[in-house]
Design brief:
The chain has strands at about 5-10, 15-20, 35-40, 40-45, 50, 55, 70-75, 75-80, 90-95, 100-105, 115-120, 130-135. The chain has about 140 residues and is mostly beta strands. The relative contact order is 0.24.
Length: about 140
């Protein structure tokens, strides 16, 4: 997968343990992949606008190794790539595709689990942006 998030500053070691499908060999999910939430408390690689933000995968998920419980980051400052919309410092951002973010464009979105975090800098379209990750920001 491309464009994995890059940890810039681990403010608090806030992690959550979640279930992920074991999958088959060759279906690995890279470390620092942005995960979406599905029920119950299950993670999968982000893929589309509107995905519910679960966290950022702390370790690689090796398909077919039998492991189904993984830790995900729920905080910290991360460099994450913009999907092409451009982002202004102070805006809330959401998942916009596979390891991509965009401005949380709906006034009600902050009440939902789509929010990845708060943009700490302004960036042009398709640039990497520093994000304070977490739904509690």
């Amino acid at each position: 997968m491309a464009n994995e998030a890059i940890l810039v500053q681990d403010l608090e070691y806030k992690q959550l343990e979640v279930t992920m499908a074991d999958g088959s060999a060759g279906t690995d999910i890279e470390q620092y992949t942005i995960l979406k939430l599905s029920d119950p408390n299950t993670g999968a690689a982000s893929s589309a606008d509107g995905d519910l933000f679960l966290g950022i995968l702390a370790v690689e998920n090796k398909g077919g190794d039998g492991t189904v419980r993984y830790s995900v980051y729920r905080g910290g400052v991360w460099d994450i790539k913009d999907s092409g919309s451009g982002i202004t410092a102070g805006q809330m951002v959401k998942i916009a595709g596979a390891n991509l973010i965009a401005t949380a464009d709906d006034d009600q979105i902050e009440k939902h689990s789509e929010v990845v975090g708060l943009a700490l800098q302004t960036a042009a379209a398709n640039e990497v942006v520093e994000i304070l990750v977490g739904n509690s920001v």
